[in-house]
Structures are given as C-alpha cells and as structure tokens.
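Entry type: protein chain
Record version: 2
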Amino acid sequence: MRALFICVASCLLVVNDGNIINRCTLAKILYEEDLDGFEGYSLPDWLCLAFVESQFNISKVNENADGSFDYGLFQINSRYWCNDFQSHSENFCHTNCQELLNPNLISSIHCAKRIVSGSGGMKNWVAWRLHCLGRPLSYWMTGCRLE
C-alpha cells in the first residue's frame, strides 16, 4: 500500500492540474534526455521554449489559421512534423501527433530534437525568437536540482 501511495504521489509531482508539468521536473527530464547543450541550446532555452509555447501544458493543442495544429509541450506543428490524420503532413518526425500529448514526453523530445537539429534551430519557433532569444534565461533553473 505504501508503494502505491509513493507511486501516485510521484506522478502528481510530475504533472499537476491534469496537464501542467512542474518546471523543475521538466528540467530534470530534459537533462536526463541530454538536451542541455544539444545543438548549442541550454536547459534554460528549452524551459523558456516550453513555457512560451504551452505554459508547460503537455496536452495543449492549438489550431492555426492555415488549418494545421500545434501539439503538446513544444507546440509541434502538424503540417511538417507529425501526422494528425486531418490534413496533409510531411510528418518529418514520423509520429502520430497524439503521441506529442503523451505525459512521458519522449515523442515530444525526440521530435523537438529533430526540429532543432535542422536549419534554424530553435528559431523555428516564433515565440522562442520573440521571448527567449538573446535574453538572460538562467532564472528558469532557479531552485531546480538535476540530481
């Protein structure tokens, strides 16, 4: 019974309010997935990106004017990166868009890495360019322990 309580409590620490991931929990996950320094971007860059795109909401879906949709923590677009089975998609990440809403974040992280590895890096996200690029971002890690 105690093990069940610990499991439930730890799940609540990762995702609260149903779909919002804690900033420091996200930092730890991103660190464990080797995103710190990936393609020259720091953990604060990734945290700022996740916040400006989804406010750390793992299940956010947003419809765009062109009929495409943005999915998940990093608001990954269906026109190019995932298949939503609603409109034409290049599906460069070779994934179902619904996978980008998964709380384990692996599909979202792998797709975001693919995007950042290509031309433009994080500049592919307009919100990151407007709100994170060239700004001091170290405060995103305040109070977070990675170990």
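Comment: The mean pLDDT is 90.
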